From TrEMBL:
CDD domains, A to Z: DHDPS-like
Superkingdom of this protein's organism: Bacteria
Protein name, entry field: Dihydrodipicolinate synthase family protein
One Gene Ontology cellular component annotation held by this UniProt entry: cytosol
Pfam families in UniProt: DHDPS
Keywords: Lyase
Classification via SUPFAM superfamilies: Aldolase
PANTHER family reported for this sequence: 4-HYDROXY-2-OXOGLUTARATE ALDOLASE, MITOCHONDRIAL, DIHYDRODIPICOLINATE SYNTHASE
Amino acid sequence: MSKNTHRLDEKASGVYIIAATPFGDDGELDLYSIDSLTDFYLEKGVTGFTILGMMGEAPKLSESETTTVMERILKRVNGRVPVVVGVSHSSNRHVQRLSNEAMSLGAAGVMVAPAPNLKTDEQVHGYYAGIANLLGKDIPICLQDFPQSTAVHTSVAVIHRLIDEFPQVVMLKHEDFPGMRKLTRIRKESEAEGRRRISILVGNGGLFLPQEMLRGADGAMTGFAYPEMLVQVCKLFADGKADQAEDLFNIYLPLLRHEFQYGIGLALRKETLRRRGAIRSAFVRKPGPALDGTDHEELTRLIARQDALLG
């Protein structure tokens, strides 16, 4: 098994790619494509991986398939970069079991979204506190703040409280929408109050990446099919070249925005990855979207325009 040579910590930055889960045209796991996709992401220079996220179709996997995907990717990565495993589930015991399994296989930490139907700050805090206590101090935690999917609002006050109470909370995946003022508040209030600074990586397909980097984000945790753009943009920001970063981002923006569409975005992402040779099939497991002829033509045109602009 892969050695756990990385531990997720507050200094994490760069691009943690949200890995797609490849299936064959028959809907079964494609182990060959898991390997080729892992190699593709590494070749494009990603800082880390996040596997079994919502765009990784984790809820559509059986328990044995979940283990297979974890084992396969962690073995292929072989300690070269940190791997965060999504462990969100309605059962706390399942979160605990999956977290322990992930860490034993060499994961750097786990990502947890709140359970559905939490309505108040106390409920959200209580949920995360229960998970943190259940997992213990040795498992680094990334909080996933994605209310568009969970319908749970995690307030700035709750995030601060969790940071203060649980040293294992080392990262926030920021996906509130609109949420840039939230990002600014977390950074400014933390600094003003002398709070521990945690890593903030942003999602939402990277749609607002330049603005979020200028507001204090440390990088991206998303799955755009051109990860090299995310890598280059984050590096340019780190080098103090914000205008160059945004100019590069803008070339890719039409395709990134297209891939961000709810409902069909994952099918577009997988088809683009297939066209780039990263996976053999663009199959999205049911229930899930499939592209029609017009969708394919549209994607072809957007890719051609992007290629022309890149020269």
